[in-house]
Hints:
It is a single chain. The chain has helices at 30-39, 53-57, 79-90, 106-116, 128-144, 157-168, 219-226, 231-252, 269-283; strands spanning 17-23, 43-46, 66-69, 95-103, 148-151, 177-184, 195-198, 256-263, 287-292, 302-304. It is α/β, with parallel strands linked by helices and 305 residues long. It folds into two domains: 17-168, 3-Layer(aba) Sandwich (Rossmann fold); 177-304. α2 (53-57) links the parallel β2 and β3 (66-69).
Amino acid sequence: MKEPETPQDPKMDPERRRFVLVTGPSGAGRSSALNVLEDAGFEAIDNLPLRLLPALLDGPAQERSVALGIDARNRDFSTNGVLDLLGQLSAREGLMVELLYMDCSTDVLLRRFSETRRRHPLAPADRPAEGIRREQDMLLPIRARADVLIDTTNLNVHELRAEVEHWFAPTGKHHLTISVQSFSYKRGLPRSVDMVYDCRFLRNPYWDNSLRGLNGTDPQVATYVSQDPRYDAFASKVLELSALLLPAFRDEGKSHVSIAFGCTGGQHRSVTLAEQHALSLAEQGWQVSIRHRELDRQHPVKAVT
């Protein structure tokens, strides 16, 4: 196995666009590796027909590096075709080409197919063992060409991520994006939210006629809500909990975390808390976006920088 002298970050060399071809036996972890590379900043593409790749690379210049996953399911996949493609790409100026080969023992591959009950792409009459053998034989020349080889036989998902990040994201930290939103309990909880905070115990600007028509982004409303004697302690504890959990979520491999604040109408208290929390997280260096579901469901998500 050939190995790079040192792991490199996809944005380290602005003069050379990085291209990583990810392949290996079906079930060895190719899709998982692509997910890690995507979190590390690569543009990840799965099973693009090889004949279309030159058009992709010849398109408008992009700063992001590319990770392309291919396997035996690819319509025009062949050993010679992949090796020829690697040779052609390596000859291009401004492109750093690497082959990441995800490998795994036959026994473990067979167990994985048995557990998932998926049919092997090269298996005749639902005989995965035969398909695994055929694919391994077909991939031997490509395996020998690998720049980085990762054997996933004894790796769990976290160890696999760490191994891929070692070679392609040496900081060991992928990006974690955070969305903070406000909502109304009358319209129900938002879907796919990781953490929800109920703000209905705070003083309600709705009962102040001068504030009823405003929303929580207005300084007057924010001041009114923040004057509740329980506001500071609540906001502080929520921020403290986020400071504890967000690094843990990132280390666990999550790429996105959603935090929601709810109140009765989704116009005043939850909006104020969402704005304040998002700003605090942004000040700590997190990448944050804000959405106020009840204020305007048609507006795009607002990014906080």
